[in-house]
Structures are given as structure tokens and as C-alpha cells.
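Changelog entry: the Dyp-type peroxidase record was regenerated in this release. Current contents:
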Amino acid sequence: MHHIIRAGIPYGPGVTPEESQSHMTSTSLERGLALVAYQSNIAQGFHFLQQVWINDANVRLGTGVDAVIGSAGNDPSSRSRTITGLDPACHRRTMTLQNDFVVSPLY
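Regenerated C-alpha cells:
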């Protein structure tokens, strides 16, 4: 069984109305979201999240593979994937990501 309680804690200044309207922000500001997680088994919990939830396109109502750290597969020519849930005004709107957001080197 995989028990997890998780929460995101924002830090730094919020986005100003001007930044929101222009879709531009300063890269010199320290802001983001910190993850806090309590798990019944830390090793198995993260393994489960990474192997099952993050790369399962149907884990949450068919929203797609995780947009930030999910992998669409090992073949670089088939990396594109379609996700939903990113538009707060229309959660069913789709977006196709052509490349992986996080790329790690092969060792």
C-alpha cells in the first residue's frame, strides 16, 4: 500500500498583475513551490510516484504524462505527448509538448 500526504508551499513574492498580463517575469526573483510529503515508505513511495503516476497518461482523469518530469518513452523521435489540465479557464484544453522539459544525461 502506498500512503502519501503531500502539499506545495509557495515561497517568494507572488506574480504581480503586470507580470500576469504580460506573461513575463523576472528571472532574478527567488520564487517557487516547495514540496512537503509524508509517506509510509519513502523509498517505495517515490518509486511508485515516479514509475506509476508520473508516466501514466491516465492516472488522473486522462490528463496525460506529467508535464514537467514525465517521459514519453526512450525513442527521441516520439517524445511529443498531449496533456490537459493546464488552462484554469478550460481544464479540458489540450497542449502538445514536443520535447521533454527535464532531460538527464545518459551514463
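Helices lie at 17-22, 42-53.
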